[in-house]
Amino acid sequence: MLNVNTLPALPGYDGYIAARVLDFFGSTTPWQRGLWCTGLVLTLKELLEASEAVRAGVLHEEAFRYLASQAVKLVGVDPGSGDKQQRKLIQKCLTNDLSFGGLDWLTVSKVTEDIESHYLERWAVALRDPSSRPHLETAARSIAAHLLDAGFNPEFLQRWWIYNIRRKGHDPIAKLVSAAHGLAREKPQAYKVLIVFAGIPQSRSAMPRGWVDAPSVSQWLRKNRFDVRGLNQDGGVWLEVNARDPWAAIESAMETVDRVAARVAVGTNSQLTPLSRAWIEGQTRHFKLGPRRRGVEVRALYLQDQIYSERVTGIVDAAIELLAPLASSSPSAAAAGGWAAIEALLSGPGDRGRVSAGDRMASLVACSFPRAELTPLSYRIQQLGDDLSARLRSCACNRDRAKLLAEAINSGEDMAFRGYSDAAAFERMQELVADPFRTLHAIEVEAADCFRRLYRHRNMVLHWGKTDAVALRASVRTAAPLVGAGMDRIAHAWFVERISPLELAARARLRLETTTSGTAFVDLLAPGDPT
């Protein structure tokens, strides 16, 4: 386990960015502190691909223009996009006819190559100028998104980020980002990954390319000083992949295994079962395999004692079943299943398009955000032992804790935090308290962008067979925790109040439009008047 608390303390602005980037790389980061967006380069690449999808009749022009408008906004505020002349050029192209293969399309493609080559280098320059530094949350999201979108595995990035902070000590964040630029410009490496199976069905002719039998697997492992005790295997396969890092290589290899396993399942009525460990040639450690963990958490199932319930009481139960692929299946199945759950719950009479369901889920996410952030912050403050800590300790429930903390923020009470991640969360809560209406709507828009991206990729998977879309993995990575958060609120309302998802969405819409001041945002989805 990586101990983030032992990192050197960087000064305010730099420390905020460093901590938030670590939040975005962390596998245990709660949904409200996670990364919901993709970076500028991937957004432009997705747009170029979407133009072809429009030509193929897979995406509607309206969905394409929505994505183009997002790209225009990003280019305008992102220092990584280049100088003023380049930003003006690309924005002009993005608002023109971006037909696949046309002049504007080709121009955007060429500019995207330039942006990708210099992106973090330009960010490092921008971070060195105190007089024009970008907003710190925007900086953290842009830097983290670019590295994740480039294909690096989050665990590798977390280790790399922590190692470089420790090595560089109190160097400015610009130096760390400059080092990250060098990392991002490195070419993917070739890896040989050994996946071993507990059982593998025979084919009619021969085993797959790279197959090694059980004795050969054991011999290789012993030769390379790996422990083979208790390793019951029937052989394995060497897979050659190009990847950014060893963890990404394992992930890529497992996606190959997933595709073969799907063929085995439908072609032989058997199962292809990999063991829980994999190895990479030249590496001195093994890598754990297991179900994907994308952060889809519906805690209401546990809290309302519905985990082992055998009753199927309506659409919510059916949607939870549809949601399962988003938690752990391949990216294409995850996109299809995740959107199916959203659409089943939140589509309604009179909808002009299916994307409305995602916008309603975004409203639920925005309403859930304040409590999700205030509750853990209240427990951090309780550890400090001051007057506010005593008052928090006397609260009967988490709702009361969140409300008390919101009131303390509103009254301007001083609070100190031991970690930059909590301090950054506190600053975001201060913004929320100062202007609930604007802040909640900004959260809603960001969540809606995330769900619309998932919808676009669902369409490309189901209507185009596009299982290798350039932003498919990112769309699943960013949407999964948010879908879980929205589903959690839907499940709670269903099991506790017996109200439908659409009725809950209507409640969310009303509260978001009428909450302008005070601390009513603490409980926006509660029945009755939250004030």
Topology:
Elements: H1 12-25, H2 40-55, H3 61-77, H4 84-95, H5 103-128, H6 136-149, H7 154-168, H8 173-185, E1 189-199, E2 211-212, H9 214-223, E3 236-243, H10 246-268, E4 273-280, E5 287-288, H11 300-303, H12 315-328, H13 331-346, H14 356-382, H15 387-393, H16 398-410, H17 420-434, H18 436-464, H19 472-497, H20 501-514
Antiparallel strand pairs: 1-3, 1-4, 2-3, 4-5
Helix pairs in contact: 1-6, 1-7, 1-17, 2-3, 2-5, 3-4, 4-5, 5-8, 12-13, 12-19, 13-14, 13-18, 13-19, 14-15, 14-16, 14-17, 14-18, 14-19, 14-20, 15-16, 17-18, 18-19
General description of the model:
The protein is mainly alpha-helical and 531 residues long. It folds into three domains: 4-185, no CATH class; 189-288, no CATH class; 296-531, no CATH class. Helices cover 61% and strands 6% of the residues. It has helices at residues 12-25, 40-55, 61-77, 84-95, 103-128, 136-149, 154-168, 173-185, 214-223, 246-268, 300-303, 315-328, 331-346, 356-382, 387-393, 398-410, 420-434, 436-464, 472-497, 501-514, and strands at 189-199, 211-212, 236-243, 273-280, 287-288. It has a five-stranded antiparallel beta sheet. Strand 4 (273-280) and strand 5 (287-288) form a beta hairpin. Helix 5 runs antiparallel to helix 8 (173-185). The radius of gyration is 24 Å and the shape is globular. The model has no long low-confidence stretch (mean pLDDT 91).
Distinctive features:
531 residues; mainly alpha; 5-stranded antiparallel β-sheet; 6% strand; 5 strands
